[in-house]
Amino acid sequence: MKNSYRIRPATESDLAAINDIYNHYVLNSVCTYQEELESLDDRRRWFSQHGGKHPVIVAEAGRQVVGWGSLSPYHSRSAYRHTVENSVYVHHQQHRRGIGSLLLKDLIVRARSLGHRAIIAAIDKEQTASVALHAKFHFEKVGHFKRVGLKFDRWLDVIYMELILDAPRPKSPPPGRSVPIRLSGHA
Ligand SMILES: CC(C)(COP(=O)(O)OP(=O)(O)OC[C@H]1O[C@@H](n2cnc3c(N)ncnc32)[C@H](O)[C@@H]1OP(=O)(O)O)[C@@H](O)C(=O)NCCC(=O)NCCS
Hints:
The protein has a single domain, classed as Aminopeptidase, CATH 3.40.630. Helix content is about 25%, strand content about 30%. The protein has 4 helices and 7 strands; from the N terminus they run βααβββαβαββ. It is globular. Bound molecules: coenzyme A (COA). Coenzyme A (COA) binds near residues 130 and 133. Coenzyme A (COA) binds near residues 87, 89, 96, 129 and 130.
């Protein structure tokens, strides 16, 4: 039977499950550049800094938390106030079941309704799943920082992907028609 998943705002009682999902990647993956396990106290502090314009959500299968996502401030300088950075982590034994898509879709809807204008995803270059997930939701690659991370004795590159929320949605061109090139940016 196909699993059904429920996305809902996280509560304090989800923090241990959120941390277990995350700490697997701290120990085993370069998808996070954190190298020390996240303690529950740190996770509680992180959670207390979220809420309101910066939600934390979880995906549940039955009563088990199988993934989580968040919107965090991108930068502390005030002019960045309409920009957020997203995180999505799915339990390592639950990949490719659509959970990451449900979480990211929900975060985008929330970001729009909270008045945010841009979502940034900072993704290690090797994370093909994460890059593909964000591309599926029309995030565009906007930056590539080379050799900015060092984990497991390897230098790592970070890719930045961005979704601008007030941009018109991309439409597929009609068959047989050429696509006009739209120049963007400010002179
Ligand atoms: C990235 C991650 C969240 C994806 O979650 P998921 O539940 O497996 O994703 P989904 O099943 O919804 O797949 C979404 C899309 O991602 C792509 N994708 C997922 N896994 C992939 C893989 N291993 N290789 C290539 N593409 C992949 C596919 O395009 C897929 O779309 P499709 O199923 O319509 O083809 C998950 O792999 C994960 O938790 N990784 C570790 C943490 C991480 O890198 N988080 C991102 C940091 S912000």
